[in-house]
Amino acid sequence: xxxxxxxxxxxxxxxxxxxxxxxxxxxxxxxxxxxxxxxxxxxxxxxxxxxxxxxxxxxxxxxxxxxxxxxxxxxxxxxxxxxxxxxxxxxxxxxxxxxxxxxxxxxxxxxxxxxxxxxxxxxxxxxxxxxxxxxxxxxxxxxxxxxxxxxxxxxxxxxxxxxxxxxxxxxxxxxxxxxx
Length: 180
Description:
Organism: Paenibacillus aceti
Strand content: 35-45%
Number of helices: 3
Helix content: 10-25%
Distance between the termini: 86 Å
Mean pLDDT: 88
CATH architecture of the largest domain: Roll
Strand order of the largest sheet: 6-5-4-1-7
Number of domains: 2
CATH superfamily of the largest domain: SH3 Domains
Order of helices and strands: HHEEEEEEEEEEEEEEH
Structural class: alpha+beta
Protein name: SH3b domain-containing protein
């Protein structure tokens, strides 16, 4: 077959890969078993709420909030929210158990800020090297408090200083008085 024929063949069959991906996902999801959970989690970005898994139309949009996760099937989560009970299919980083913290971190290089802890989430501003207040953590991500609100940064190469360490009095060697 000549190369010139490929363009016509590709345009006629361009929907085949999408159909194959959708069918593969449906088959995978059907094989998943429902796991029952009782876990409070943070919904970190707006997410659609559905009455059932896989329905076309959502019931509503959930704003960021604490939700009670009662079940999981594949990449779907059954939640109890301020708008009722339903199923969500959050993209990576939108649903997490956030550890509350009170620490600072010294940014030695520029750092991007993100709306939620995922490199593909909407970006905020770029922070120049500085000390930042860390108020939460999820996996390798740090939630920081800035003048423009709370933002996430990739914390893989950032060292934390806990507030307790910073506020701790200096301990002098035995017999010496600490400097005032």
